[in-house]
């Protein structure tokens, strides 16, 4: 439905919903409500959505336009809190509307600027000069491809415009350049261009969500740089595409709709997701592996208001997460030095190891650093310092968990097959420091014990070590092979039951939130869980809380359980680090019984693919990873690797990785 045009303002409902959470959006230069239709259609929240826009009859002055639109939206919602947003010119108009509403004593709860720009005369000088050079270069590249006569004319025209831009940098009059360049433009567009030319934004004493395009094909500048310092707090979110395609492509507009949905939901008092708190507000993700889940978690944390940084190897999925406050490289030849430099430069309040090697690396740095602040943040992040040796040992974790009242299968460190005399079969052999099912083997009967022990207790084979070096760029396996370093092997009693995991967010030994998941399917034999079901299991949750308290854990961790037919939960493994399901805790509660296929998944049939809808870049990267794994050459490489490394142990249960 639409309301009559009044006082030069059009007001139109795009989406019916709750009047208590109405969202008002302003379109771009053309003032066309249809421009925002895909964005509104993608929203799933309870809010009603209105488009408010100036018409050709409005005065071409932004303050006047904004005042008219404020009067129009007050006809729908007489009092705040208000939720405003706008695209391009509409973002600038929404910004001024928010200023006027706050000046009138109203509350503006949310303000979304979607690739909004203001007049280039008010850009920072360095940004303006860089943009001028870039646009001039783009024009020259275009002109040299034209026929000679046409190129000369275009060069003369562009030269005149360049001189105009240089002269008007410090001019006080409205911008004649934009309007004169579009003699046949509709009156709405002419008015908008004139209004932009005469408007200089002032500091906004509130919070702004700036949704900026990741590419620049038009203005020569990064939108995010323009708004730096113009608001009390700017929550920057990148969207794949350029200034035009972020709204013209339905997929990109849908991402913006999901993002706005999420921001509005996060402001509600009953929001179930994690929020930043003292000691857990500025996390740094430390990773030595190139796992997609680290990027997924970083994006979720940044969305939730955390100030997220990373220290990671090159060519990592974290590269596409543009909301990182700092992105540091973990150097292969100098890991400790590069990690310490990253921590000193960023000063996070918590470190989140993404894998076992990252956890061990932080322990080594703690022993070697001379910086008290670095030692303090490592101690805060890894649990009780006296328990670090326990946390890295499967047997010690089992023994300490049993003392805390947690049910665990019998688990012992063994030095040879003779130590297993009296054990019943089947049983599991597991090495310390392994992950994702690596270093796990099932021994079905006593006749298989000796050969399985011989395989699992030796360093990685040369073929596997070389494969990990060339394909995974991991040097640890080859170093262990060359030095003859043997792993610590644990024996664990095998129990029949269903695999399950608990994902926990905790701080100083206290659980902030947790989610219980049953493993429906693993990605491969011994591999991490791929499909999970949300379950309510009080015994498993209580056991996880006891383990967190016993070791004083902080950050994220995952625990593998075995659920027996009689309903008991046995702890079989502790991963005191980030696991692939941690983002579920950040994003909010999931209904009991919900089945999730963790993205990216290489499977044809899925219950609910857990796609990162609010990050088109992450979604596209995940799709590329799946496509790469399904290529014939890649499949052939996996089969060849399996043959070359067939002497390594096989078998075991799905793991959370």
UniProtKB/TrEMBL annotation:
Positions of region (Disordered): 637-657
Span of the signal peptide: none
Organism: Paractinoplanes globisporus
Superkingdom of this protein's organism: Bacteria
Keyword Transferase included in the entry's annotation: no
InterPro entries from the UniProt entry: AB_hydrolase_fold, ATP-grasp, ATP-grasp_PylC-type, Thioesterase
Keywords: ATP-binding, Nucleotide-binding
Xref: SUPFAM superfamilies: alpha/beta-Hydrolases, Glutathione synthetase ATP-binding domain-like
Residue stretches making up the ATP-grasp domain: 398-617
Protein name: Thioesterase domain-containing protein
Nucleotide-binding found in the keyword field: yes
């Amino acid at each position: 439905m639409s309301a009559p045009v009044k006082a030069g303002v059009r007001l139109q409902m795009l989406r019916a919903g709750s009047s208590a959470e109405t969202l008002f959006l302003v379109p771009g230069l053309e003032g066309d409500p249809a421009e925002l239709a895909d964005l509104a259609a993608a929203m799933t929240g309870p809010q009603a959505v209105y488009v408010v826009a100036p018409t050709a009859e409005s005065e071409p002055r932004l303050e006047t336009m904004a005042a008219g639109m404020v009067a129009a939206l007050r006809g729908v919602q007489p009092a705040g809190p208000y939720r405003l947003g706008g695209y391009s010119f509409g973002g600038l108009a929404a910004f001024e509307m928010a200023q006027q509403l706050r000046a009138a004593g109203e509350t503006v709860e949310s303000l979304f600027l979607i690739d909004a720009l203001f007049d280039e005369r008010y850009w920072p000088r360095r940004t303006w000069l860089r943009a001028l050079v870039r646009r001039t270069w783009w024009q020259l590249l275009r002109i040299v491809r034209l026929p000679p006569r046409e190129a000369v004319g275009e060069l003369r025209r562009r030269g005149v415009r360049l001189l105009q831009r240089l002269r008007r940098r410090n001019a006080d009059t409205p911008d004649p350049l934009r309007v004169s360049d579009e003699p046949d433009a509709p009156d709405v567009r002419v008015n908008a261009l004139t209004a932009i030319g005469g408007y200089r934004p002032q500091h906004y004493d509130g919070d702004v969500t700036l949704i900026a395009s990741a590419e620049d094909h038009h203005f020569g500048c990064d939108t995010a740089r323009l708004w730096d310092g113009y608001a009390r707090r700017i929550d920057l979110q990148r969207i794949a595409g350029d200034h035009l395609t972020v709204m013209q492509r339905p997929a990109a507009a849908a991402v913006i709709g999901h993002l706005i949905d999420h921001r509005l939901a996060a402001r509600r008092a009953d929001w179930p997701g994690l929020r930043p708190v003292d000691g857990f507000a500025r996390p740094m993700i430390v990773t030595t592996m190139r796992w997609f889940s680290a990027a997924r978690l970083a994006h979720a944390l940044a969305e939730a208001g955390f100030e997220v940084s990373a220290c990671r190897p090159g060519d990592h999925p974290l590269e596409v997460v543009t909301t990182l406050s700092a992105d540091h490289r973990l150097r292969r030849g100098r890991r400790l030095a590069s990690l310490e430099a990253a921590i000193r430069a960023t000063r996070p309040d918590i470190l989140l190891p993404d894998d076992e090697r990252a956890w061990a690396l932080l322990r080594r740095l703690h022993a070697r650093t001379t910086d008290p602040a670095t030692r303090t943040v490592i101690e805060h992040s890894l649990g009780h310092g006296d328990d670090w040796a326990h946390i890295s040992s499967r047997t010690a974790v089992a023994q300490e968990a049993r003392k805390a009242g947690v049910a665990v299968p019998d688990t012992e460190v063994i030095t040879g097959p003779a130590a297993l005399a009296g054990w019943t079969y089947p049983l599991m052999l597991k090495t310390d420091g392994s992950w994702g099912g690596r270093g796990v083997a099932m021994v079905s009967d006593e006749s298989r014990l000796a050969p399985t022990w011989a395989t699992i207790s030796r360093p990685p084979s040369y073929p596997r070590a070389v494969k990990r070096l060339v394909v995974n760029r991991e040097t640890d396996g080859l170093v262990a092979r060359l030095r003859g370093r043997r792993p610590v092997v644990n024996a664990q009693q095998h129990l029949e039951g269903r695999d399950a995991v608990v994902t926990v967010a905790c701080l100083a030994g206290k659980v902030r939130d947790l989610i219980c998941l049953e493993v429906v399917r693993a990605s491969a034999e011994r591999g991490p869980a791929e499909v999970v079901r949300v379950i309510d299991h009080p015994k498993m949750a209580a056991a996880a809380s006891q383990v967190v308290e016993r070791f004083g854990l902080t950050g994220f961790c995952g625990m593998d359980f075995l659920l027996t037919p009689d309903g008991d939960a046995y702890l079989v493994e502790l991963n005191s680090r980030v696991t692939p399901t941690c983002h579920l805790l950040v994003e909010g509660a999931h209904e009991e019984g919900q089945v999730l296929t963790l993205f990216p998944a290489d499977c044809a049939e899925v219950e609910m693919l857990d796609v990162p809808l609010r990050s088109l870049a992450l979604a596209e990267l995940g799709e590329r990873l799946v496509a790469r794994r399904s290529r014939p050459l890649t499949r052939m490489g996996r089969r060849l690797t399996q043959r070359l490394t067939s002497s390594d142990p096989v078998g075991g249960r799905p793991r959370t990785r």
